[in-house]
Design goal:
Length: 210
């Protein structure tokens, strides 16, 4: 399975980066492919609210604000599972995450299933991780916010994991181990690759992090 890990942090040795690395290791240990993207290293502007409120997102499902979002959107479409890792800022996902989620929602939540259109994340498994400070205040609210967006996008949210400095040690294991469940959760049939469907899917081996 191709798993996309989207994270957002300016701190290479911070808690968010550690969570993303645990997720990556968990995916690899489950014998799946992981790709990690740090939104802070990309240029993804906020939604420009084009026209009278809608731009090309509504009918063409493409954002007309040209920056790194287009390439990222392609990567999202190609992925078969997701891990979203954000720091908790003011009880919410980080600003780069909000910009990314806002634009993705406009492009993907506007698809019409009655016309055979299917959202990029529809039926695909996702795990959300919120890396908070010492207090952990707002971590659950942050995760709720991510869950709401992902439900709107039709993703199958498997777990919501709050991590603080105090819970770091055991929660990094949780983040790692959650990937075994994610990689064995196949997307709903319409997005399932045909060869995998015929084989009945590959069962990954669970392995705990050392
Ligand atoms: C602008 C800002 C707002 C923050 N708000 C919260 C918060 O509401 N709750 C909390 O527990 N931690 C909060 N924190 C702490 C971060 O969530 C925490 O330090 C997190 O580990 C940062 O991720 P990093 O290690 O990748 O930098 C805030 C930090 C910043 C910079």
């Amino acid at each position: 399975m191709k798993v996309l890990i989207v994270m957002s942090t300016p701190n290479a040795s911070g808690l968010t980066a550690a969570c993303a690395e645990s997720a990556r290791q968990g995916v690899v240990d489950s014998r799946s492919r992981a790709r990690v993207v740090n939104l802070n290293e990309l240029s993804v502007a906020r939604c420009a609210v084009c026209g009278d409120g809608w731009g090309t997102c509504r009918k063409q499902h493409e954002c007309q604000v040209k920056d790194d979002f287009q390439e990222l959107h392609r990567t999202v479409r190609e992925a078969e599972g997701y891990v979203f890792v954000t720091p908790v800022y003011f009880g919410e996902p980080s600003e780069p995450f909000k910009a990314f989620f806002d634009r993705l929602r406009r492009c993907e939540a506007t698809r019409d299933p009655s016309s055979g259109e299917r959202g990029a994340l529809t039926g695909k498994p996702a795990v959300c991780v919120a890396a908070a400070g010492g207090s952990g205040h707002g971590a659950v609210r942050c995760l709720e916010c991510m869950e709401r967006t992902l439900h709107r996008l039709g993703a199958e949210v498997l777990d919501l994991i709050p991590v603080t400095q105090r819970t770091r040690e055991y929660q990094l294991e949780t983040v790692h181990d959650a990937q075994a469940v994610l990689t064995e959760t196949r997307a709903a049939p319409a997005t399932r690759p045909e060869t995998e469907a015929r084989r009945g899917g590959r069962k990954p081996r669970r392995r705990r992090r050392r």
